């Protein structure tokens, strides 16, 4: 008899939490898990199911202590656009503005260079950064929380996901299960139509303020290209809005203008950005940093957010913070 309920029918939040708890605890067989995840993805995940799955993950993570005003800036990944590392650069810029950033992430899965890969190419010892995460967050205002270090229950699930070779609900789980238990976030997802569903889940889980964003072309961050779906989640309230680059005083640019490469390529671009190089990559970082600064309560609008983020770059504060991080993560 199967341990898991049939996933072709809607699950309540409690049913989803039990099902994902059983999966993370290793109770069902690999075949059962694979079938359940595929059926759920085929049907389309509901807010209640995302919420239940996130609660199960949160109950089993290894937490860290973090400042009350810490935020996270990340995307769900899997958008297929292979852009330069925007959220990584945003994390450095926002931390340089004085907002602690507990960045939750991993190495590349579907892209050529994930956050960890690019930071490593910049000279950050990623194993040491993981070990010293709580310390660097407290002392210099930034850390990297390796998913593998904080979600041991996922070790059972990861090979099944790789074998499936498709997007599942677990692609949505990372931003909802930050080990620092942040209450403010900028989360990019690769499916614009899922923004209100994901926002509903975030509201059920509880947040002080979170922006859920998705570019019209399926970018898992704020896009300079056309427009963006944005859900502003404050407590249980969700406000949907449209935002484009012009609202932040920035020029539109196609996604191809920020196309990335391997870790070395992306690290070189990020180094140039921190030295003040102009162009679409800088604008994309400024746009997303502005969103993060609004969420953090640092600024009230997009233009002020862009100005503060630009100042952190142009005064060398973001570059200096990276250098301090590299030195501290030993």
TrEMBL record:
<comment type="function">
    <text>Catalyzes the transfer of the phosphoribosyl group of 5-phosphorylribose-1-pyrophosphate (PRPP) to anthranilate to yield N-(5'-phosphoribosyl)-anthranilate (PRA).</text>
</comment>
<feature type="binding site">
    <location>
        <position position="115"/>
    </location>
    <ligand>
        <name>5-phospho-alpha-D-ribose 1-diphosphate</name>
    </ligand>
</feature>
<dbReference type="InterPro" id="IPR035902">
    <property type="entry name" value="Nuc_phospho_transferase"/>
</dbReference>
<comment type="similarity">
    <text>Belongs to the anthranilate phosphoribosyltransferase family.</text>
</comment>
<comment type="pathway">
    <text>Amino-acid biosynthesis; L-tryptophan biosynthesis; L-tryptophan from chorismate: step 2/5.</text>
</comment>
<feature type="binding site">
    <location>
        <position position="221"/>
    </location>
    <ligand>
        <name>Mg(2+) 1</name>
    </ligand>
</feature>
<dbReference type="GO" id="GO:0004048">
    <property type="term" value="F:anthranilate phosphoribosyltransferase activity"/>
</dbReference>
<keyword id="KW-0479">Metal-binding</keyword>
<dbReference type="InterPro" id="IPR000312">
    <property type="entry name" value="Glycosyl_Trfase_fam3"/>
</dbReference>
<feature type="binding site">
    <location>
        <position position="161"/>
    </location>
    <ligand>
        <name>anthranilate 2</name>
    </ligand>
</feature>
<feature type="binding site">
    <location>
        <position position="87"/>
    </location>
    <ligand>
        <name>Mg(2+) 1</name>
    </ligand>
</feature>
<keyword id="KW-0328">Glycosyltransferase</keyword>
<feature type="binding site">
    <location>
        <position position="106"/>
    </location>
    <ligand>
        <name>anthranilate 1</name>
    </ligand>
</feature>
<dbReference type="InterPro" id="IPR017459">
    <property type="entry name" value="Glycosyl_Trfase_fam3_N_dom"/>
</dbReference>
<keyword id="KW-0822">Tryptophan biosynthesis</keyword>
<keyword id="KW-0028">Amino-acid biosynthesis</keyword>
<keyword id="KW-0057">Aromatic amino acid biosynthesis</keyword>
<dbReference type="InterPro" id="IPR005940">
    <property type="entry name" value="Anthranilate_Pribosyl_Tfrase"/>
</dbReference>
<feature type="binding site">
    <location>
        <begin position="103"/>
        <end position="111"/>
    </location>
    <ligand>
        <name>5-phospho-alpha-D-ribose 1-diphosphate</name>
    </ligand>
</feature>
<feature type="binding site">
    <location>
        <position position="75"/>
    </location>
    <ligand>
        <name>anthranilate 1</name>
    </ligand>
</feature>
<keyword id="KW-0460">Magnesium</keyword>
<comment type="subunit">
    <text>Homodimer.</text>
</comment>
<dbReference type="Pfam" id="PF02885">
    <property type="entry name" value="Glycos_trans_3N"/>
</dbReference>
<feature type="binding site">
    <location>
        <begin position="85"/>
        <end position="88"/>
    </location>
    <ligand>
        <name>5-phospho-alpha-D-ribose 1-diphosphate</name>
    </ligand>
</feature>
<feature type="binding site">
    <location>
        <position position="75"/>
    </location>
    <ligand>
        <name>5-phospho-alpha-D-ribose 1-diphosphate</name>
    </ligand>
</feature>
<feature type="binding site">
    <location>
        <begin position="78"/>
        <end position="79"/>
    </location>
    <ligand>
        <name>5-phospho-alpha-D-ribose 1-diphosphate</name>
    </ligand>
</feature>
<feature type="binding site">
    <location>
        <position position="83"/>
    </location>
    <ligand>
        <name>5-phospho-alpha-D-ribose 1-diphosphate</name>
    </ligand>
</feature>
<feature type="domain" description="Glycosyl transferase family 3 N-terminal">
    <location>
        <begin position="10"/>
        <end position="60"/>
    </location>
</feature>
<feature type="domain" description="Glycosyl transferase family 3">
    <location>
        <begin position="69"/>
        <end position="318"/>
    </location>
</feature>
<dbReference type="InterPro" id="IPR036320">
    <property type="entry name" value="Glycosyl_Trfase_fam3_N_dom_sf"/>
</dbReference>
<dbReference type="Pfam" id="PF00591">
    <property type="entry name" value="Glycos_transf_3"/>
</dbReference>
<feature type="binding site">
    <location>
        <position position="220"/>
    </location>
    <ligand>
        <name>Mg(2+) 2</name>
    </ligand>
</feature>
<protein>
    <recommendedName>
        <fullName>Anthranilate phosphoribosyltransferase</fullName>
        <ecNumber>2.4.2.18</ecNumber>
    </recommendedName>
</protein>
<feature type="binding site">
    <location>
        <position position="221"/>
    </location>
    <ligand>
        <name>Mg(2+) 2</name>
    </ligand>
</feature>
<keyword id="KW-0808">Transferase</keyword>
